[in-house]
Amino acid sequence: MAAWPGEEIEERAAEIAAHAYVLLRQPSGWRHRRVETITVLSHEQVRRHVSVDFTVPEDVGDGLRVSAHEHAVPLAFLTKRPLVHFDLRNEETHAIPLLTAEQNRMIGRELLYQVLTGDLAAQDADDGAVTLAAGPLVEAVLGEDERRLEDRIAELEAKYELEPLSDFRAMAAVLSRYFIVWAVVRGVERRRIFKFAYDERYSQLPAFRYFYEAQGCTEAWSYHVEVAVPQDLRARTTSLGDDARDVVLASGERNSDRPALYYSADPAEEFERPGLFVHYGAERWRFLAPGAIVAAVIALLVAPPLLFADLHRLAGSAGPAIGLVLSTSAVFSVLVLRTDEHPLLRVMLLPYRLCLVACTLAALFAAAALGFQAAPWVIDVTWTVAAIVSVAAAGILSIATVRAPSVRSGPA
Amino acid sequence: MRIPFLRRKPLTFSEEVARSTIVPSREAAMPRLRDTRTLEEIRAGAKRSRAIRANGGSPS
């Protein structure tokens, strides 16, 4: 009687694990290229799109068979925590099935025992006793119980007087927190490109500098990473590096709206904390330059009259007309204060918008004091405050404009 | 554009990261293992390991 769906995997778990182990040990040997695109959804959320271009070697492919025409291919290690908007597709954007959690555990169990066997093969040990003693440890790893994992492995080593089980320790650490993404593939004999994507949330710090962890940069022969920078923003600097070793591996174009980096890792190279550093800036001509111009015009309308004109006399003659002129500044401010933009840009521009709002309100109060022919001291105070606020706002916005990246200028 | 009188020493990669918002990855890299056994050796080891588990400590 033919095996039911799933039964074949149960029977073949050890075979699949052995063949996958060969693949996983040398990811750059069969994964040609890995392309990661980071799309900034908001100031607290990104979406990662990952495409994996691979060819399963002929001598390994059959060992990964899970049914007559399907093979399980290990694409990546993903966290066991729930993934948001996870999606796995092939070249034709058709959805691809994954192995179930139980099937994943079956193969994971065999994989852990095989890694343990590798560690024991290099030393003179009672592999029967150690294998049995490691059983609860293996089940704890698969059961997501990572408590005292290190200590429990150390106890096993001490009890049987073993050399450090370094491979087993490393594999157990990964499989206790991550699961293998087993894509069920039809047509494993040819070169394939599979794509997966998921969202990530995080807490934004005040500075608009981001470090996107990129553990996958060594998981293929070549690694390409791109950042889809939101409209009206620029990536001032972009660099791929390892935070633990303080090294830069590749740098991207400056002031780019879509920086792209390429890196090809040495197969023996291991990074502790690889990632992509991106420093964003608001595009100069989106708000900052128009805002600086409006603030400068308001400052010119307020500061020179305060210094050189007799405001008290003007209040009696031309006050309403001057009030009308100053009120028009509010119209221009509203034009540059529109907020139909990307959430990250909105957060980034908030302090500058507040500057322009303060400047405009100060000018309106000064105009109102003159227009309503307020008491002389009220006119003095409102015009002095308006002059200080507008000059300060113009200064802040001008400096921000000069420092902002722009598509019309060269690298900063 | 550089602001006059405002020249600062460039930050190192780690210094930049220390001031950054960390966006975690849901992925892990495959650990680099010392094991250099061939596929056939791995399969033989797996067979022995399964036999040990099936027979409660003895491979046969």
Shape of chain B: rod-shaped
Output the number of helix runs of chain A: 12
Strand/helix succession of chain A = HEEHEEHHHHHEEEEEEEEHHHHH
Secondary-structure content class of chain A: alpha+beta
Describe the structure.
The complex is a heterodimer of chains A (about 400) and B (about 60). Chain A starts with 6 loop residues before the first helix and ends in a 9-residue tail after the last helix. Chain A contains twelve helices and twelve strands. Chain A has helices at about 5-25, 60, 100-120, 125-135, 135-140, 150-160, 165-175, 285-310, 310-315, 320-335, 345-370, 375-405, and strands spanning about 30-40, 45-55, 70-80, 85-90, 180-185, 190-200, 210-215, 220-230, 235-240, 245-250, 260-265, 275-280. The mean pLDDT of chain A is about 90. Chain A is elongated, with a radius of gyration of 31 Å. By secondary structure, chain B is mainly alpha-helical. Strand 7 (about 210-215) of chain A pairs parallel with strand 1 of chain B.
Short description:
The complex is a heterodimer of chains A (412) and B (60). By secondary structure, chain A is α+β, with helices and mostly antiparallel strands. Chain A has helices at 7-25, 58-61, 101-121, 127-133, 135-142, 149-159, 166-177, 284-308, 311-317, 319-336, 343-371, 376-403, and strands at residues 31-42, 45-54, 70-79, 84-89, 178-186, 192-201, 209-213, 222-228, 233-242, 247-251, 260-263, 274-282.
What's the SSE blueprint?
The complex is a heterodimer of chains A (412) and B (60).
Chain A: H1 7-25, E1 31-42, E2 45-54, H2 58-61, E3 70-79, E4 84-89, H3 101-121, H4 127-133, H5 135-142, H6 149-159, H7 166-177, E5 178-186, E6 192-201, E7 209-213, E8 222-228, E9 233-242, E10 247-251, E11 260-263, E12 274-282, H8 284-308, H9 311-317, H10 319-336, H11 343-371, H12 376-403
Parallel strand pairs in A: 1-8
Antiparallel strand pairs in A: 1-2, 2-6, 3-5, 4-6, 7-12, 8-11, 9-10, 9-12
Helix pairs in contact in A: 1-3, 3-7, 5-7, 8-10, 8-11, 8-12, 10-11, 11-12
Chain B: H1 13-18, E1 21-23, E2 27-28, H2 39-55
